[in-house]
Structure of Opsin 4xa:
Amino acid sequence: MDVDHGFYRQVDVEDHAHYIIAFFVLVIGTVGVTGNALVMYAFFCNKNLRTPPNYFIMNLAISDFLMAITQSPIFFVNSLYKGWIFGETGCKAYAFCGALFGIASMINLLAISIERYIVITKPLQAIQWTSKKRTCLFITLVWLYSLAWSLAPLLGWSSYIPEGLMTSCTWDYVTSTPANKSYTLMLCCFVFFIPLGIISYCYLCMFLAIRNTSRDVRMLGSQVRKSSLVRQQSIKTEWKLAKIAFVVIIVFVLSWSPYACVTLIAWAGYGNILNPYSKAVPAVIAKASAIYNPFIYAITHGNYRDALATKVPCLHFLKQPSRGNRMSVSHSDSSFRDSVLSRQSSVSKTKFYRISSMSTTDTHIWSDVELDPINQSRRLTSSYSIGAPKEKELNLLISKQSEEKKGHSQNSSENKC
């Protein structure tokens, strides 16, 4: 039974339902605030992590941190009181923050996917598009876009009301009015489904680029070039980082999908089949999206683990194996690459030695890649530009030696005559 209670209806549910939700909200809030605070601390302390592509990761941690710290405490207190106790203004402020930070996280994931797409499929444009200035501009646009959708219910397009067990607030997707129905539809399309479609397209193109590059290198076979090997290794590194982002995106989408389904059911006119529990549980699952990313980084991101292990003593177990172990892997990979390069060296031993040594050096560079492969590629490009004049000098020296040999052979033939 629903009871009128001011500007909202107090639902008649068992007390233990409120307490169970309060427990889960407390866990989500504690883990979300602590985990994302550690992510921000690690990126702040480690200069190697403060790179333009990682600004998006930092921005995602900030939005998740703010989501957890603004939503969970209020949700928890309301659950203990078994109803909304902060008034209409508090409800609007709470729902506004939840919408702002939730939308910011989704659009930020879209920006990460586009950035990975440019780096992998359009490497020549990547340096320009992933500069610090452009990255900060994109992050600003993410927040402005999120702010626009969050302000709309406060300005009359839909409204913010309590939902579920009346212990949290969101936009009014239940009341069937033109404003509410249009806002719900547009919000789901432009904040969830369209970004999800763009993300899927970006990852499909990245997958095809990886497959085509690997196929091209295999087709070259014994005539594989040094630039092809470096390019393939660079794309593999970028793809590894893209897979980390893909895991983050999948977890986020799975967290918000039940909530999106509930809102669309109500939008379609079947809100009467939704009971308070079917509205409250998806809301809790959606707010839990803020807690997963720190665990994903701790599992997949070596530099993040090292930073935390160094700065937070109780997390020393996260530290990676010593550099010597990684170097042994690097040398074994180097020997394999040298054997491939030896098939194409038919000019001179001196020239082969130079290419082989360059291969060893590059293997070392890529084996210890940071989360900013653009900077690595810049250094790699500069090393080639420095080495180009040396190669010209070497070619001149070889041509001079060949001319001297021809001169000696002519002199010897004249002496015989």
The beta strands are 2-5, 8-11, 160-163, 168-171.
